[in-house]
Design a protein that fits this description.
There is one protein chain. The protein has 296 residues and is an alpha/beta fold. It has 2 domains: 126 residues, Rossmann fold (3-Layer(aba) Sandwich), CATH 3.40.50.20; 150 residues, Cytidine Deaminase, domain 2. The protein is 38% helix and 16% strand. The strands form 3 sheets. It has a 5-stranded parallel beta sheet with strand order 3-2-1-4-5, with helices on both faces. It has a 4-stranded mixed beta sheet with strand order 7-6-8-10. The longest helix has 17 residues. It starts with a strand and ends with a helix.
Length: 296
C-alpha cells in the first residue's frame, strides 16, 4: 500500500486530506502539531506523531521510519500562538539561519526543501479532493451592487499590490476605503478589526500572493468564514476561481443559506471569476454604513 505523509496544522483541511487519501487507497502517516491539529485526525491515520512547532528532525524521522516517499502540508499554524508552542530543534535552527526571512512563504519553502533533501517529495494535496476549488457561477443569494463590485476590485488590487511583501491573503474595503489588510493577526482578527473601524457592509477579498507556492498554502473559505461574515455584517467576499479552497462545501452552503449569505457568480467585465458573499437586508446595511461614515 502506498503511504502519504501529512504535515498537519489547524482547521478541517488535514481531516479532509486524510479522508481523501484513504479513499484513494493510501495509508496515512501524519505528523501533527500540539495545540493546533484536531485530535480527530488520529482516527484517519495508520500512524500519527505529535510534535511542537519547529521539531523538524522529529518530523522527518517519523516519515522515514514509516517509509513515506510523498508528503503534503495541510492546515495552518497560528503565528499568534508561536510564543507558547515554538520549539525549534537543531535542524530547524540551522534552516532558519539560512533562510534569513521569516515570511510565511519563505518558511514553508524552506521546510519543504529540508524534507525533500531527505528523499521525500512534497506534493499538492488538492488534486486528491473532489470539488475542492472555487469555480464559476453564483452559489446563492442576490446580485451584488455595482458599488460593491467596485470595492471588490479595489480589495483584489490591494492584495495584488501588497502580495509580494507576503503580508497576508485578505483585504477588506467599504465604500472605496481600505479598512484592513491581513497581517500577522490572521484573517479573522483582521476582518473584525476592519468591522470595528468601518462598520457593517465590508467587501472582502482573499487571494493568493504573487508567486505563492500553492502546494503549501492556499486561500480558503468554509463554514467558519460564513459565520464570521454574518457576525460582522460583511456584504461580500470574493476568492479566485481555480485557486481558493472551499472547505466543507455542503456545510458552507447550508450556513450561507441560513445566514442569508450570497454565493458566487461569473467574473466582472474583465473576466475575473470569484466567489461573492453578502448579508441580507443590503439597503439597511448600506444606510447604516453611510451614517457611520458621516458621524466619523
Amino acid at each position: 500500500m502506498s503511504k502519504l505523509g501529512i504535515i498537519a496544522g489547524n482547521g478541517v483541511f488535514p481531516l479532509e486530506v486524510a479522508a481523501a487519501a484513504r479513499r484513494r487507497g493510501y495509508a496515512v502517516i501524519a505528523v501533527a502539531h500540539r495545540g493546533e491539529t484536531d485530535e480527530r485526525l488520529a482516527a484517519l491515520c495508520e500512524e500519527i506523531t505529535w510534535i511542537r512547532v519547529g521539531e523538524l528532525q522529529t518530523m522527518i524521522d517519523a516519515f522515514r521510519r514509516a517509509g513515506v516517499t510523498e508528503a503534503a502540508m495541510a492546515g495552518g499554524i497560528a503565528r499568534a500562538r508561536l510564543g507558547d508552542s515554538f520549539a525549534p530543534d537543531a535542524r530547524a535552527i540551522a534552516m532558519l539561519a539560512r533562510v534569513g526571512r521569516f515570511s510565511d512563504d519563505a518558511l514553508l519553502r524552506a521546510v519543504a526543501a529540508e524534507i525533500e533533501s531527505d528523499g521525500i517529495a512534497m506534493i499538492d494535496p488538492v488534486p486528491m479532493l473532489d470539488d475542492a476549488l472555487a469555480g464559476l457561477g453564483r452559489m446563492a443569494g442576490p446580485e451584488p451592487s455595482a458599488a460593491q463590485l467596485k470595492d471588490l476590485r479595489l480589495a483584489f488590487g490591494v492584495m495584488r499590490a501588497l502580495g509580494g511583501f507576503d503580508v497576508g491573503q485578505a483585504a477588506a474595503v467599504r465604500d472605496g476605503v481600505v479598512g484592513a489588510v491581513e497581517a500577522i493577526e490572521g484573517t479573522d482578527a483582521a476582518l473584525r478589526r476592519a468591522a470595528a473601524l468601518c462598520g457593517r457592509g465590508l467587501v472582502v477579498a482573499k487571494a493568493a500572493k504573487p508567486g505563492q507556492d500553492l502546494r503549501f498554502d492556499r486561500p480558503a473559505i468554509g463554514p467558519a468564514t460564513i459565520e464570521l461574515l454574518s457576525e460582522i455584517g460583511a456584504a461580500m467576499i470574493g476568492v479566485e476561481a481555480g485557486q481558493a479552497l472551499i472547505l466543507e462545501r455542503a456545510r458552507m452552503l447550508a450556513a450561507a443559506a441560513s445566514a442569508g449569505i450570497t454565493g458566487r457568480r461569473p467574473g466582472d467585465s474583465r473576466g475575473r471569476p470569484r466567489l461573492k458573499a453578502r448579508a441580507r437586508n443590503r439597503r439597511t446595511l448600506r444606510r447604516r454604513c453611510a451614517s457611520r461614515l458621516s458621524r466619523a
